[in-house]
Amino acid sequence: MPRRTDLNSVLVIGSGPIVIGQAAEFDYSGTQALRVLKEEGVRVVLVNSNPATIMTDPEFADATYIEPITPEVIAKIIEKERPDAILPTLGGQTALNAAIALDKQGTLREYDVELIGANIEAINLGEDREAFKGVVERAGGESARSIIVHSMPEALEAAKELGYPMVVRPSFTMGGLGSGMAYNEEDLYRIAGAGIQYSPTSEVLLEESILGWKEYELEMMRDKNDNVVVVCSIENFDPVGVHTGDSITVAPALTLTDREYQKLRDIAINVIREVGVDTGGCNIQFAVDPKTGRIIVIEMNPRVSRSSALASKATGFPIAKIATKLSLGYTLDEIPNDITQKTPASFEPTLDYVVVKVPRFAFEKFPAADPTLTTTMKSVGEAMALGRNFTEALQKAMRSLEQKGASFSFTKQQLNAEELDALIEKTKIPTTQRIYQVQQALLAGASIAQVFEATKIDPWFLDQLVLLNEVAGIVRENRDNLTPEILQLAKRHGFSDLQIAEIIGSSEDVVRGVRHALGIRPVFKTVDTCAAEFEAFTPYHYSSYDSEDEVAHHETPSIMILGSGPNRIGQGIEFDYSCVHASLVLRSLGYETVMVNCNPETVSTDYDVSTRLYFEPLTLEDVLEIVESERRTGGLLGVFVQLGGQTPLKLAKALKDAGVPILGTTPEAIDLAEDRGEFARVLEEGGLISPKNGTAYTFEGAKRVADEIGYPVLVRPSYVLGGRGMEIVYDEANLARYLENATEVSPSQPALIDKFLEDAIEIDVDALFDGTELYLGGVMEHIEEAGIHSGDSSCTLPPITLGPDVIAKVKEATEAIARGTGVRGLINIQFAYVSENLFVIEANPRASRTVPFVSKATGVQLAKAAVMIGLGKSIAELKAEGYLPKNMDGASLPQNTAIAVKAAVLPFSRFRTPEGVVVDSLLSPEMRSTGEVMGLDTLYDTAFAKAQAGAGSPLPTEGKVFVSVANHDKRNVIIYAKMLEQLGFEIVSTGGTADVLRRNGVNSTVASKFAEANGQHSIVDMVRNGEIDLILNTPAGGAARSDGYEIRAAAVSVGCPVMTTISEFAAAVQAITALRERSWEIINLQEHGEFLRTASTREQGQDKGEQVREGEQVREGELS
């Protein structure tokens, strides 16, 4: 059936901030959906609180609301925009939950809006575990035996029937949050107790254990004429017990017999019919008992999921795009396949290659967390690779992770029988290290049967690891005489030059030289959805040491963009945003663009964003081979390394040395900014100051430096990113403790020690420089004071307390640094402003994580401008051509500009210590957030409240507030406590804070500290019971610190907002006042951009001095 004619306007709900379990894949699916809707002539309205996404760019929708995804806000948008329908299946669990809530509260009926892409019945059938069991039975499948409970007594009763171990799962949560395995009664108390709190319906499912079974999933689509296609089968390397997001996965499924596969397919098709998904995608997970072949249906997601992104990238079949067309009324046989242009979407994809996805973890950020993998997802990103066989794809995926030790090592350990048994014993527990332990055990002589018994990893996969070990053995035996045949064999199994060098005791460069001399180079194959039965029109390539190359000749030389690799904390989707912008703007100017990336979740790896896509690891070896391929088929103009974060920057120098032209900022300029000594010289020449610092090579040296500079100091190892391993140290004892735990201080790994500036205002700047002129993109003022990593702290743009003189200083300093380092394009600089002095903290000569936020707050596309500067355009030309505004910049925004507040989203609730306590939520110089949200409003207090709500910890407007602060904060806390008391809040405090408040006339209920409770009802118990609605807890040293930790941990597990700095608490008090006084206005980015454009042309004639806000007036107005 052709498209419905009654849908003229559609509201799409996004997935909000990136959290573990719901990441960039929803930006990818959402962006595809918006493009389809626009092509079909529908007016598109979007709500999504995450500014780092491509989908929230103003050009992708007609009205873009960066607002919290709550039923109240969406109801306001519906009232204002009057859409005909809502599409909720592309924003993960967040969007589905919002749609269910809108239906419950009657908003959909009131405004006559229909849900397309899924219906409420189908959502409930898929999500409600009891109802779903019935579906599976009717479909001829079976489910695990299970019992639903709502309280602990019920749970203990159920345990008698099911027996331990059992799986515990709360309903309606995302990425397995709150679920786990209970091996005994104590576990059951811990997991089910928390689960009852996490589930919005406080219901928890207990089911029989299927631990150790093989796990599969099928990605399906169905239309309303009942055409069903299986897009892709995916098999988990790890057996049941590890969340599929944390497991290595393989597509297509490799260890099923054809008969088993057909059986899974039949059950899946019956299930999707029974549930009634008739306009879109869904994903069904199965477990198969390796002993008996019994098949159990684990669950189904009636929406586009993490696996759909993987399946789309693995097959070239754009699930989200096709799901969107189905929701508009088309059927599968009417939709053409983009890649072949001949076959319809009802044609199932066929793969003539193997795809492997490997998760990337961030346990180093949470040293206290338990690294055991369970049914709660903990990975923060993933890398995918394609190859002609499993071993090649696996090895490529592992080197794509960019972590030390991510690739297999083939150095044999001489283990005696006991040591080998101990190693095999270790492999019983799934951790991030397990695959390496398995490979080492097999290398040391363990049998496949022994390892299968311990791990339940399918023997076929174990045999493939043995094959890798055997190939390594052949290379080692012939190390003095590497024949072309042996080298080719190793390359066909995915060995990198570096791995071969390690085996034969040589260097990577030598191996590469020999390989090139012998003419052993990869060819590039194409992902074409049909195993080369039809011609492919979209060049989507992967490398393989095979015989036939499939890269077509191109007429004009291309421009290569290096992406940012797998998501991780400190380098996420924000960098992908800049890469996509670069590709889009270059294509609009008529250039051929080539994207290199290995992250399946992102928009950049969509096959039609760039002219060509190479789905390859971002290592020097792999990138050099792609450069060679481009040169061979039509030439390469140059490479952009400044857009994908630290990953491509690390390759810049080696690429230049290999004769590859680097566009934009040169490797020399990058070094000037990254090297401490060089950078200090740049600052000196520009007359700028940075905090006193020193470098220590020994522990004694560190003590001496710290004494000279004066405590407190910030200590960190010298070779880090994202603030890894940094700490603020207040005295010598703590310095000793840090140096013992954190690093070996040595001449090759010195510790860097900086004076820590207390109570400084941190300022973040993004700017463009072309060699002569500076364009200041935006000045952000951090709400928390310096000492918290800029990625974790909230910030506001335009700044709300900085006077015009400070902003002028910042602009001068930014220009001096840009000129001194020789940047061409984007630069990001962090300053600290304290007692009338502006200190420079650091400069990053690349696109930073704040680029998308600044672009949206100021209505200027910085990434696009940076790319054009990289091609030689000047800022003056960009202003003339309308890419940059002529008469304003980020420092001189018009007077009534809406204020944007960015807040970070932190993943603490997923990381627990082995005892099951949440890891500490105290913010520090080490970045731990996974994503961000933005609140936009004409008033700062409301913008802050929106950001808090978007980040998932909305501020209370009544109730109890717990206040406990360190001594140096006691003076400042009084006024805010008084304001809350006047608003009718009840103040609860402990010890010293209570005394200070009492003397200043604030009544507070005194609670006993955790350490002193002796079985009484302590503050921690109050938090755990949900009696406290907001917490201010600024940390002090010693015992008080651990006490604070208990309080914060309890708060995270019940979802109570916690402030750990006075400045943030002050913002919260203003926001609470605002929430009580008025309801939110909503504003879309298109209106915001239009205001900025007209205001900047209108204010041209006025005196420049009037544009800067008078900070003082705003302040007085807020307090009155």
Question: What does this protein structure show overall?
Answer:
By secondary structure, this protein is of the alpha/beta class. 38% of the residues lie in helices and 18% in strands. The chain contains 39 helices and 39 strands. A 7-stranded antiparallel sheet has the order 14-13-10-11-12-15-16, sandwiched between helices. Strands 17-18-21-20-19-22-23 form a 7-stranded mixed sheet, with helices on both faces. Helix 7 packs across helix 8, helix 20 (573-588) packs across helix 30 (862-870) and helix 26 (699-709) runs antiparallel to helix 27 (732-742). The protein is globular and about 75 Å long.
Please describe the topology of this protein.
Elements: E1 9-13, H1 25-39, E2 43-47, E3 63-65, H2 71-81, E4 85-87, H3 92-104, H4 107-110, E5 114-115, H5 120-127, H6 129-138, E6 146-149, H7 152-162, E7 166-170, E8 180-182, H8 185-198, E9 204-208, E10 214-222, E11 228-236, E12 249-251, H9 258-275, E13 280-288, E14 295-301, H10 306-315, H11 319-327, E15 354-360, E16 381-387, H12 390-400, H13 417-426, H14 434-443, H15 448-455, H16 459-477, H17 484-492, H18 497-504, H19 508-517, E17 523-526, E18 540-544, E19 558-562, H20 573-588, E20 592-597, E21 612-615, H21 620-632, E22 636-640, H22 646-649, H23 652-657, E23 662-663, H24 667-674, H25 676-685, E24 693-696, H26 699-709, E25 713-717, E26 727-729, H27 732-742, E27 751-755, E28 761-769, E29 774-782, E30 795-797, H28 804-821, E31 825-834, E32 837-844, H29 851-858, H30 862-870, H31 875-880, E33 899-905, E34 931-937, H32 940-950, E35 960-964, H33 970-982, E36 986-989, H34 991-999, E37 1004-1006, H35 1019-1024, E38 1030-1033, H36 1038-1054, E39 1058-1059, H37 1062-1077, H38 1085-1098, H39 1111-1119
Parallel strand pairs: 1-2, 1-4, 2-3, 4-5, 18-21, 19-20, 19-22, 20-21, 22-23, 35-36, 35-38, 36-37, 38-39
Antiparallel strand pairs: 6-9, 7-8, 7-9, 10-11, 10-13, 11-12, 12-15, 13-14, 15-16, 17-18, 24-27, 25-26, 25-27, 28-29, 28-31, 29-30, 30-33, 31-32, 33-34
Helix pairs in contact: 1-10, 1-11, 5-6, 6-9, 7-8, 13-14, 14-16, 15-16, 16-17, 18-19, 20-30, 24-25, 25-28, 26-27, 32-37, 33-37
